[in-house]
């Protein structure tokens, strides 16, 4: 019975860690997209003012 509890706790801990890692990865990807969008907009604005 104790072994089953340990397996369940271990599984839930692993699931929580995987979820946190996935969230961090998605957050990094979203931040990169938003940052790239802002950088592109700034470059476009400068290019249009120059021309």
Describe the protein's architecture and organization.
With 51 residues, the chain is mainly α. The protein contains one helix and no strands. The chain has one helix at 2-50. The mean pLDDT is 88.
Write a short abstract of this structure.
The protein is mainly alpha-helical. It has one helix spanning 2-50. It is built from one helix and no strands.
Determine the number of helices (DSSP H or I, runs of at least 4 residues): 1
Uncertain stretches of 5 or more adjacent residues: none
Instruction: Please give the alpha-carbon distance between the first and last residues.
Output: 75 Å
Percentage of residues in helical conformation: over 70%
Sheet with the most strands, sense and barrel status: none
Tell me how many strands there are.
0
Shape: rod-shaped
Keywords for this entry:
mainly alpha, 51 residues
């Amino acid at each position: 019975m104790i072994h089953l509890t340990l397996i369940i706790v271990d599984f839930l801990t692993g699931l929580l860690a995987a979820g946190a890692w996935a969230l961090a990865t998605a957050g990094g990807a979203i931040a990169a997209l938003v940052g790239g969008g802002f950088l592109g907009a700034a470059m476009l604005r400068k290019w249009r003012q120059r021309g």
